[in-house]
Amino acid sequence: MKPQLGLVVFCFATFSTFVHGAWIERRQNDLQPSVEEFRDFIYSRPDIHDGFNNMFWQIPNATEYENDPTGLLPQTRDIPTMLKRLNDMLAGPPKYGPGYIPFPLGTILIWPMCTEAGLGTFRNAEVSSHLGNILKAWAAFLSTGESRSTLNNGTYGWLKEEVLGRDFCDTYVCDPREEYWGFKSWDDFFTRPLRPGKRPIDAPNNASVVVSGADSTPLRIARNVKETDEFWVKGEPYSLRDMLNNDPRTPQFANGTVYQAFLAALNYHRWHSPVNGTVVSVETVQGTYCALSPSIGFNATEHPDPPAEEFSQIFMTNVATRSIVLIEADNKDIGLMAFIAVGMIEISSCEPTVNVGDRVNKGDQLGMFHYGGSTHVLIFRPEVDIEFIEGMEDAIRDGTVILLGKEIAVVKPQTA
Ligand SMILES: *[C@@H]1O[C@H](CO)[C@@H](O)[C@H](O)[C@H]1NC(C)=O
Ligand SMILES: *[C@@H]1O[C@H](CO)[C@@H](O)[C@H](O)[C@H]1NC(C)=O
Ligand SMILES: *[C@@H]1O[C@H](CO)[C@@H](O)[C@H](O)[C@H]1NC(C)=O
Ligand SMILES: *[C@@H]1O[C@H](CO)[C@@H](O)[C@H](O)[C@H]1NC(C)=O
Ligand SMILES: *[C@@H]1O[C@H](CO)[C@@H](O)[C@H](O)[C@H]1NC(C)=O
Ligand SMILES: *[C@@H]1O[C@H](CO)[C@@H](O)[C@H](O)[C@H]1NC(C)=O
């Protein structure tokens, strides 16, 4: 059984109103500005208004879709309920639900996202921009001290062994004796740094060894990847020109190799360099937040893929909000390579922490994700003779996490 990407969802803010009296007081009657703007946009645009109405109507009237994916709340089936739940989301930090990893936005929208109307509407750039603003407002809240209200060991708190394991503050910078374990905000907890030495780098002096850039589960290796592909139709393929946001260097990667691996909700959320090299480009692309692959919708032959575990993760590399870091590796047999950190649904931001011209060594930090399950890809040029480690296929099949700094591949010297 593959571990879930983490888009197992739980509608905290709203659920909490049933179980947590204190939260009712904190709820806001008025819509927050970003939600109000989204409402005004929806009602001012008949096409978008129809798109949202249709996605709620197109959710099958089957028992299994009566409730949201947590089974705790009736499925959102109209625009006012959606807006109210988005507004509720903004009023609090994620609460750990016993047995759940909370993804409030996914909880509200995952079934609508799987409908034909949803697949289309969430590709709209203005819809994405509004969702981006709502997530930015949430991210701002998650950076405040107030967002620490779930950093405790209560029923819905995160700071306990059953959630974080036994050695958490041994691995990450925190102190269980301090209030909130020393975290300054919920985001500070989510983006916690590792303690030195906790992720030793394999073969630090051997330039032919490429290491894992994140604590992540390999999903797919694709060879001979096309410069452009019709991913809208087929859903699954990588399309380099889309992934790289039309970067002029895209042709250099045509027919190259893509390695994709995902980070689960409780994994470490920073990303690091897989090689020694120089950063030659850093770009963060505002893309979609909730657009899923057409191949997973309710019309698909297989049942929809609510955890977005497979096809949508690949699809999202082409369209989602993402940070693209190009690195010129010191090893000429690798040369120019790409690292793309891809946000998924709740991600409020992918934040690169390097600049053009920076020298990076294997294992040096490149950036981080702020809240959410997320995925990343490495792209190598077609000339690169790259061989992935024995056991990679097993890791893909079994969903094994490969830690940051572990060898993932060896690049062979070019013979020609
Ligand atoms: C579900 O039922 C509602 C109300 O009867 C209807 O408007 C909607 O079209 C139905 N949806 C589907 C997918 O059949
Ligand atoms: C929970 O936290 C409180 C306050 O920090 C502490 O007194 C208590 O011992 C903790 N309980 C457990 C089970 O760790
Ligand atoms: C680097 O690692 C590769 C793969 O393990 C190995 O074949 C090669 O001999 C190593 N090179 C050096 C200089 O140690
Ligand atoms: C990477 O750079 C560091 C620092 O200069 C150096 O110690 C290390 O040997 C280099 N590794 C490779 C593989 O070139
Ligand atoms: C990529 O492969 C295709 C088909 O194998 C070939 O026609 C094309 O010339 C290749 N492109 C590059 C840039 O190598
Ligand atoms: C999905 O199924 C519905 C009902 O069978 C049909 O009207 C619609 O055209 C289908 N959409 C796609 C994209 O196949």
Automatic annotation (TrEMBL):
Keywords: Decarboxylase, Lyase, Signal. The keyword Signal applies. GO terms for biological process: phosphatidylethanolamine biosynthetic process. PANTHER family: PHOSPHATIDYLSERINE DECARBOXYLASE, PHOSPHATIDYLSERINE DECARBOXYLASE FAMILY PROTEIN (AFU_ORTHOLOGUE AFUA_7G01730). It comes from the Eukaryota. It comes from Leucocoprinus leucothites. InterPro entries: PS_Dcarbxylase, PsiD-like. GO terms for cellular component: mitochondrion. GO terms for molecular function: phosphatidylserine decarboxylase activity. This is L-tryptophan decarboxylase PsiD-like domain-containing protein. Residues 1-21 form the signal peptide. Residues 32-163 form the L-tryptophan decarboxylase PsiD-like domain. Pfam families: PS_Dcarbxylase, PSDC.
